[in-house]
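Handoff note, outgoing to incoming analyst
You'll be picking up this chain. Sequence as last confirmed:
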Amino acid sequence: MIKEIYAKTILNSVHQPDEGFGLKYNMNLYRGCQHQCIYCDSRSACYEIENFADILVKVNAIELLADALPRKRVRGTIGLGSMNDPYMPIERRYRLTARALRVIAENRFPVHIVTKSDLVLDDLETLCRINQLYAAVSFTITTIDDLLASKIEPGAPAPSRRLAAMRTLSEKGILTGVTMMPILPFIEDSQENISRIVTLAHENGAKYILPWFGMSLRTGSREYYYDRLDELFPELRKRYVQRYGDRYICNAPDWRKLDEICREMCSRFGIAIQMPTFTPEPVVKSRQPRLI
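Most recent structure output, in case you need it:
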């Protein structure tokens, strides 16, 4: 189901220092996500989303953003991609992300986009404008196997398409890299998979990789994930229950070794483990000349 709604606010402040993603503000133009990744934490009951397959479109988002940005006293990075993907297929119809980026460019704010889609290339010109200050695009890649990805991220473009988009962005001077998370235990946590991701990220222009060798599971997301495991990987549910029980943080059994391999390879390729971020700064308002 797709439903148009009117939001009360659109731009939220990130109060604690965000060292990982460098965000000062966060924005979700849609609610729910069409990519339907089986591991998505946004299905957790704490977020109170009744059906994550239903897409709510915040049709007044651009007006809210255009009103909010000129009143901000601190210029900091705006994040897109926390609760859903800003470039899911419905973006082709509503173009909320494209229009929001134009407002961000006009107001000279930095941006960090996290996505699984090469649709981001449709906004390359606007991103180049924003990049006069700071623009970063992180592609979530947890496997380079397109067939496996089609099972665990059924609505998202293949990793091969994301890597090609990454190369294009990098060649245009946009800061780009990989959010290598979550790495699903017993499915993606092989040394070969991690090595291939790092190698292909390097070959396609990644400047950083943000890794996490594990996943999160809590009420709501856990039940959905286990049901998908029963369909796709019979017998894996039992291994998860035995190892993790009701734990929220589920690190891969060999996560320390995977981390060691990732860091060694990134060091060799000159890839950062922490992304370069924009330092928030006061917004200097232009003074109106006095009328005499």
